[in-house]
Known about the structure:
The chain has 361 residues and is α/β, with parallel strands linked by helices. It has 2 domains: 3-186, 3-Layer(aba) Sandwich (Rossmann fold), CATH 3.40.50.620; 214-352, Nucleoside Triphosphate Pyrophosphohydrolase, CATH 3.90.79. It has 11 helices and 13 strands. It has helices at residues 26-38, 61-70, 74-77, 91-103, 145-153, 160-168, 173-182, 186-204, 254-266, 272-278, 341-352, and strands at residues 3-4, 14-19, 41-46, 80-84, 112-116, 133-136, 214-223, 226-232, 241-242, 245-247, 279-285, 296-305, 319-326. β8 (226-232) and β9 form a beta hairpin. The chain starts with a strand and ends in a 9-residue tail after the last helix. The model is unreliable at 1-8 (pLDDT under 50).
Amino acid sequence: MLFTMPHAATPPHTAVLIGRFQPLHLGHLALLQQALAAAQQVVVVLGSAWQARSPKNPFTWPEREALIRDSLPPADAARVRCVPVRDYYDEPRWVQAVMAAVHAQVPPGARVALVGHFKDDSSHYLARFPGWELLSLPRQGDFDATPIRACYWNLDEQPQAAVAQQLGALLPPAVAGWLQAWQASPDYAALRAEWRMLSGYRAAWAAAPYPPVFVTVDGLLLCHGHVLLIQRGHAPGQGLWALPGGFVEPRDTLWQSCLRELAEETALPLTAAALQSALQGVEVFDHPDRSLRGRTITHVFVCHLPGTTLPAVQAGDDAAAARWVPLQALAGLEAQMFEDHFHVLRRCFERFGAGPVPALP
């Protein structure tokens, strides 16, 4: 059950503020300052941690933590604890991770209050934390990170001085200054180009009577302690590691599309019958926010190939590289993986794992 904290109540020990802060804006800062005024300490939960950089999640969690601290007076910053939490694309698991991360910063038995306001459907998570009081605060100005990022990517090619002026009215000075400097980085240029591509992609179907739902397939092939991955050759996610896969062709079944993508992207020298005999099952991934391309539902075909010899592979089509990756190396690739593919691996290992597959975070 979620409680609303009475005004006369004894202040809680810890206030919790959850967000992605991509980037931290003045509305976030006002909530944080009110949380600091209401509790002894504030735990800031930094969402989307360990995600690869993307136009929606351009900044790493250590960068976001530094910007939060740089935007506060030192005495206030000393009372803030920042904890990173992954996007699990699985709300119950995410809630458990948030609660574990917060309670690691709180003395046993101390009262915890969740700070926030119900702005839209994206705020439904505020009701998912039983036992935490709700410190419900009004909206702190007309701030929203989505249009701020749109301004920052500057697809309209506005003069830099105009962009800096707009952002300066919406962001703490430390954040505005850091973003201006970050514009000179290769990451900024790459993500801006990716957002231009994605914006054009979305514009192509904007006139449809309703938003389309895309259907894709991916192949998760395991062999002798390795998994087959490709490195994406084009945006979105150029240079990131992913499962081989792609969109379903109009006249293909899901399985036929999976076989075609494996052949085109990896030149895997196995027959359809050999892959069929190795098939362990199919898992569907349909989280609404799993892809920036639009609502994308993928079907992952999980195959355990027999033997101790890794089949030869060679990158083709949209793949820049194809490689058998040791399973024990996957945890170190988390921040270099496309969209939700790290968590696709995690869930498939949990469901279909046979043999020494790792327990991913």
